[in-house]
Write a structure and sequence with these properties.
4-stranded antiparallel beta sheet, elongated, mainly beta, 5-stranded mixed beta sheet, 9 strands
């Protein structure tokens, strides 16, 4: 009986240890052994230079244009010392993304306080250990013709500051889901057009 009780205690301790040490907060919501790292998100300022903030002109010479960012992604595995090496099945295919906007004052009404969220499609392979840079639309041109951005047209002192959250959705090549979220600031205004 003592041996049985001792054996059960050992099994319980091992199960608890396994549960504690196998919980990785990055892994939540996925059973993939791969994950994405956002190395940087680069937008453009109102002069067209690389910037950590997107300067979004709501109208340029009478036309609304979309805004883009370049996002650099790297794929890695949770186990850095795989016994059999890294398989191509660990590579990550990014299939779509969702952009949502928030304001620092907490106002979140789409179409009144911030632009409407939107989803875009991708087919980008990120091999394990490699960095891939892809352009993503961060502001649609139609958003500039709708409130709240349309109210900035012709208003030289008007400005709206938002945070754009980009949720990347994909899967490893075993078809197990992989997700990653990043953010960049967007400064909307009717900037002076360059002649």
């Amino acid at each position: 009986m003592k041996k049985l009780t001792l054996g059960l205690k050992i099994i319980a301790v091992m199960a608890l240890s396994l549960a504690l040490f196998s919980c990785n907060p990055v892994e939540r919501g996925t059973n993939s052994g791969s994950f994405l790292i956002i190395e940087n998100i680069i937008g453009k300022d109102n002069q067209g230079n690389d910037s950590s903030v997107v300067f979004s002109d709501v109208v340029t010479n009478g036309v609304a244009y979309p805004d883009f960012v370049n996002i650099s992604l790297r794929a890695a595995t949770f186990d850095p010392n795989l016994v059999m090496g890294v398989s191509n099945y660990s590579d990550v295919m990014v299939t779509n993304y969702i952009v949502t906007y928030t304001r620092s004052d907490g106002a979140t009404g789409e179409g009144t306080d911030v632009p409407y969220h939107f989803e875009g499609a991708l087919s980008t392979l990120v091999p394990i250990g490699s960095t891939v840079t892809i352009p993503l639309m961060i502001v649609r041109e139609v958003a500039k013709t709708q409130p709240p951005l349309s109210a900035l047209v012709g208003n030289p002192t008007g400005m709206l500051e938002c945070t754009a959250t980009i949720e990347l959705i994909g899967h490893d090549l075993r078809n197990r889901q992989v997700r990653k979220t990043g953010q960049i600031s967007v400064r909307f205004a009717d900037y002076i057009d360059q002649q």
